[in-house]
Amino acid sequence: MIRKLFQVAGPESRGPMTAQFVALIVYSVLQGAAFVLVVPLLGSLLGDDPGDAWPWAAALTVVALATAVAHYLQQMIGFQVALAVSHRLYHRLGDHVSTLPLGWFSGEQVGRLGQLASRGVPQVRGLLAHLLQPLLSAVLTPLTVIVAMVFYDWRLAVATAAGVPVMYLAYRWAVGATARADEAVDAAAAAANERVVEYVRAQPVLRTTGGGARGRALLERSLTEQDAAARAQTARTAPGRTAFSAVVLLAVASVIVTGAALGLRGGADIAELVATLVLVVRFAEPVSGMAELGAGLRAASGALDRIDAVLSTAPLPEPTTPGPGPADSSVTLRDVRFGYDDGVPVLDGVTLELPARTTTAVVGPSGSGKTSLIRLLARFWDTGTGAVLLGGVDVRDLTGEQLRTQVSLVFQDVYLFDATIRENIAVGRPDADDARIAEAARLAGVDEIVARLPQGWDTPVGEGGTALSGGERQRVSLARALLKDAPVLLLDEATSSLDPANEAAVQHTLDALTGRRTLVVVAHRLQTVVRADRIVFLDGGRITESGTHEELLALGGRYADFWRERGSAQGWQLARQVTR
Ligand SMILES: Nc1ncnc2c1ncn2[C@@H]1O[C@H](COP(=O)(O)OP(=O)(O)OP(=O)(O)O)[C@@H](O)[C@H]1O
């Protein structure tokens, strides 16, 4: 865990963390030394001449003071290092995720990243600030004591050391049992949380369908399961903790018995023996404390693993120096094969030449790879084999900045910031003047939304844009893309916002851009499809038909089938073709 801590904290934190470890080691050894000095002190006090105790008392005072100073220093260093390292970790995570492929940012990853920021990094901070000291003291202080005991009575030292492996095994067992019980409690808590959120979110459905009682029963059941897991946790962890405490007590008792036997047989100095036994009892203190550290250490170790997993994710390779950049706004795919992590091919040998300033509609059944195709154009991922070229240059030879300048993308699931409409449009170009923002908004039909809202341009859109409808959000996103003014615009039309006002706005935008930009549109609107220079029909990751609307109708293939079946519909979805 300590190796991983150094690895995750990065080279800049290595120096301060080493200083913290040195301070911790010095403190733990001094603490052990202070315990050890009690032996000669007591030995002298109980011996023939108590006056011999003075030098030992002085030595103990000096070491005790040094221990107190070391304790203060290690605490101060620990807090400072913990703060600096957690601050650094936020930066490392932020810097690293900004180099990751856009495709990495799935909902699941974003959720995990949020958890890392809100809980994982603070857990690592807690490890540095609060857990390392008791952990190192639990190991180093007893070790110092055992080494020192060899000089007083090697037999007692051996008896004490013999208990260490047994205590270690008992500790592992106790911590293992706690870990398993905690996992069950965490899983039950997560399930109960999900149910609570689901119950709240599903209120409209539950009330309108009369399913309230059933929804509540599901919630009650998960809460009961959570209670049961918490009760089982106590039952499971109690034996381990009790066994560990018992083993520590037994180890101490066996040393006391050994000491007593040695004393009775006259093999040891009684005064030193009594003092050594006091030492053994103190030895048990930091060791017993270890049982309390298990849960915190496990949580911190899990957080380190998750942070390491993010930091180890390979970034998108980029050229270090910018090359010549795209010659024009043409788009080319050359025998592109691509699949996600599960290895199932999503695009299977796609070749396309889209000349500059043309409009291409990509259509096909759900799951045929349309969204994946346009996301590859924006380099969300790199192709498995084949190449994607913008203006004749492989996207892998473009710097991030060159790619961002060349391409704008309007997603289906538009994300708006919790800011005003104006700020949301200007997000990619904060320096844009009002006239340019107004022009982009007019082209995307946002001016009409603004006119309806009491606060106009300064209307806050709420978290994620919830104050606007899906279609309105997509229009704001379109205006944002227009303001950016990239030569290639990729648009994934939202099926969820096929209302006439939105359709007219999107069409207006596309008409205004036709012949001025290279447009690639995952199309769900008939208008977009019919007016495109070229329609590409994707099925099972392959281009099965390609041409103009008239050419594809004349071909009499799947596109023509669709046209005949749904030609009069406002919006459409193609069903996956079932082949037997
Ligand atoms: N991030 C992802 N990870 C794993 N698989 C994915 C991911 N995104 C899409 N897929 C899978 O890839 C295949 C193609 O998906 P894609 O979204 O490109 O299709 P589509 O034609 O745009 O579908 P739709 O019209 O329903 O949006 C589907 O089987 C989908 O489940």
TrEMBL record:
Entries under Pfam families matching the protein: ABC_membrane, ABC_tran
An example Gene Ontology CC term for this record: plasma membrane
Domain ABC transporter stretches: 331-565
Gene3D superfamilies given in the database record: ABC transporter type 1, transmembrane domain, P-loop containing nucleotide triphosphate hydrolases
Compartments, record wording: Cell inner membrane
GO molecular function: ABC-type transporter activity; ATP binding; ATP hydrolysis activity; ATPase-coupled lipid transmembrane transporter activity
Keyword Transmembrane helix listed: yes
TM segment ranges: 21-42, 54-73, 127-148, 154-171, 243-264
Mode of membrane association: Multi-pass membrane protein
Record-annotated ABC transmembrane type-1 domain positions: 21-299
Keyword ATP-binding in record: yes
Keyword line: ATP-binding, Cell inner membrane, Cell membrane, Membrane, Nucleotide-binding, Transmembrane, Transmembrane helix, Transport
Protein family (similarity comment): Belongs to the ABC transporter superfamily. Siderophore-Fe(3+) uptake transporter (SIUT) (TC 3.A.1.21) family.
Protein name per UniProt: ABC transporter
Organism placement in taxonomy: Bacteria, Bacillati, Actinomycetota, Actinomycetes, Kitasatosporales
